[in-house]
């Protein structure tokens, strides 16, 4: 009877293989034009919308600087919290393709709403060119703004956590597969986003400042519509990964099972814990997680009792018994959290810098020629250009150079990359403080401190060094952070891991709002560090030095966490035959590469029984 069952199962597997062979191959490099076209237009729309929004709030809606800056960071925080909801929806039942598509439509609706409000005068207060005693926007006018921002926040919540994992779904992302490629998906993702941001910060911002906000917001709306069309057109080529239920439910099941068996004794041999390759196969396409010795109390969830061992062929109650792989999924998340949290204070300290630097640039000489001057918001192109060129140089020169000394395919680890980014960001903030001191000294020399609309005779290009350093820091910190979360998270939770990256921004933005509010409240009225109207009489340089101290404390915390971090152990799955870097989920799996730390052991494994 058992032999007949095995034979029948073998025939079913062969039938599935034949069906798979007859299906057209999906995924690979040919999908990138459609995915990146979507992302290029999406980021072009986002950058064109967000890049100069501080000017729209202060110049068109007549909001005070601190209030406008807090509105943007609160909006940024909400936009970064919604990806958690989007990730849960994508990983649980909707899948990444449909989550991106629906979320893009919601984002488009938000862009259209704020464009309409910018065109119709009824939705704005009267113009105030002097910026003195201005009539601020009414509550009804602000509600139109808030609804538009909320729609774009919800839309970005479905797009941001899914795009990078969906791109990675098209390729072999095992450690072996990544090492075999001469290019880094994350580096080129950030390069593409930088290209879109660069276009928006030059073209769209110029239109907003010189042709009006109707066109300035309408163009991003059109770009977003094009991105949706491009993404949907590529759907026949995409390789989609079927969602296998909520990852949060699996984590809850492990905790529940561990609590229920808290009084049970762990076996001395970890091999006696519960393993079920067939049950875990759909959530471990790239390899099974191996048992680790950390957080051993969670291992109790995988203890097999006598009652559960009586009938091993039945599917267990996962609220009472979890596999080692699922236990290790939870351990991986717990190990990641301290490193993930180190990004929060970095965002807190830098969340308002973009808004403040735009206001600084507005008071400086921005002329490139006697008849042409650069827009304040367009100064960000120097950071974007640095990031774009730096990503190429990082891949072409830094990685091969570092590889000679470390022997690692990526040159340095993602943790080392993040640490370098933290240090460069601190240097950038100190430089920003010194440049602000220089700007105010020139204003005092020409007796312009009390004129908030005056153009101080100092070139706006004094701001370039800090933009350059922030761009270099992003090459290391931002890319390294995302790469770390993607690599160290369980593969079935990669959308959720990307959402964690976004939540770092959310919490950091909210804490940034609290920091700016407290500084504005407790630094007095006459010499307030962050004044509402006249930045020349403020103490923005003191604020930058305060931010530097916060970043130094965060750097010490990060070094401690990185020193004690343990990389996840994984039994990596590789296939014999690859074509255009594609994986076929249910095809014959030829080998497992068992890797833990520096030791590697390879052995053959045939998936038959």
UniProtKB/TrEMBL annotation:
Q: Which GO CC annotations does the UniProt entry carry?
A: membrane
Q: Where is this region: Disordered?
A: 1-24, 577-609
The membrane spanning regions, by residue number, are: 97-123, 143-164, 185-207, 213-233, 374-394, 415-435, 455-477, 498-522, 542-566
Task: Provide the topology term for how it sits in the membrane.
Answer: Multi-pass membrane protein
A Gene Ontology molecular function term for this protein is: transmembrane transporter activity
Record's compositionally biased regions (Basic and acidic residues)? 9-24, 600-609
The keyword Oxidoreductase appears for this protein = no
Show the InterPro entries listed in the entry: MFS_trans_sf, POT_fam
Q: Where in the cell is it found?
A: Membrane
UniProt superkingdom: Eukaryota
Q: What UniProt keywords apply to this chain's record, in alphabetical order?
A: Membrane, Transmembrane, Transmembrane helix
Q: Which PANTHER family match?
A: OLIGOPEPTIDE TRANSPORTER-RELATED (PTHR11654)
**What is the similarity comment for this entry?**
Belongs to the major facilitator superfamily. Proton-dependent oligopeptide transporter (POT/PTR) (TC 2.A.17) family.
Q: Please state what the protein is called.
A: Major facilitator superfamily (MFS) profile domain-containing protein
